[in-house]
Amino acid sequence: MEPGKKAVFLDRDDTLIHNVPYLADPSKVDPIPGASEALQRLRDAGYLLFLFTNQSGIGRGYYQRADAEACNRETEKRLGLSPGFEGICIAPESPDDPEPVYRKPSPRYLEEMISLHGLDPEQVWMVGDKESDVEAGRRAGVNSARIGKSRDAEGDGVPTFASVLHFTDWLLALSGETTED
Ligand SMILES: [Mg+2]
């Protein structure tokens, strides 16, 4: 049997690009230093890359899904990611939606992609700056990493990094030690 594939699911705002509240204008997409290099190195190491972003501005009626899609395309462009992400989930629900399907911490998108792409949960990471990112990974039974604080600042065993590039350095060093081929 073919071994399961490995993947990294990335939050967008304050993980890959600087957070702009209710971003709907592609000209305001501003990459975080090192994010482009991180994605390239992860892809080169064989990780499938997915974008998983909560966009409650859609559910609140502040902007349309097409605006979020335009910002995501600009994010891929500014990060030099070509071809783009293997998959993108824009979770449109507002926080007061009684039954959000995709809004993190829902693990739904992760679960769907694990099934669709034959991913190995032990080699899947959910990476983001919020507890809802960490929790989505936890609920899906994959690994989580936190961005934006010094490592393991929360003391909860979730590896924590100053940036997605620091995470990438750590992950690739780790897999270099444990990968047989
Ligand atoms: Mg974020």
Characterise the protein shown here:
By secondary structure, the protein is of the alpha/beta class. The chain has helices at 35-44, 56-59, 65-78, 108-117, 131-140, 164-178; strands at residues 5-10, 48-54, 87-91, 119-128, 143-147, 160-161. It has a single domain (5-178), classed as 3-Layer(aba) Sandwich (Rossmann fold), CATH 3.40.50. The protein contains six helices and six strands. Strands 3-2-1-4-5-6 form a six-stranded parallel sheet, with helices on both faces. It starts with a strand and ends with a helix. The structure holds magnesium ion. Magnesium ion is lined by residues 11, 13-15, 128-130. The site of magnesium ion has 7 residues, from loops. One of its GO terms (biological process) is carbohydrate metabolic process.
Provide a quick synopsis of the model.
With 181 residues, the chain is of the alpha/beta class. It is 35% helix and 19% strand.
Describe the SSE topology.
Blueprint: E1 5-10, H1 35-44, E2 48-54, H2 56-59, H3 65-78, E3 87-91, H4 108-117, E4 119-128, H5 131-140, E5 143-147, E6 160-161, H6 164-178
Parallel strand pairs: 1-2, 1-4, 2-3, 4-5, 5-6
Helix pairs in contact: 1-6
InterPro entries: HAD-like_sf, HAD-SF_hydro_IIIA, HAD_sf, Heptose_bisP_phosphatase, Histidinol-phos
Pfam families: Hydrolase
Binding site for Mg(2+): 11, 13, 129-130
Strand order across the biggest sheet?
3-2-1-4-5-6
Mean pLDDT across the residues is 94
Radius of gyration: 16 Å
**Looking at this structure, what is the CATH superfamily?**
HAD superfamily/HAD-like
End-to-end Cα distance? 16 Å
Determine the structural class based on helices, strands and strand pairing.
Answer: alpha/beta
Low-confidence stretches: none
Count of DSSP E strands? Answer: 6
User: What oligomeric state best describes the polypeptide chains here?
Assistant: single chain
Strand-and-helix sequence, N→C?
Answer: EHEHHEHEHEEH
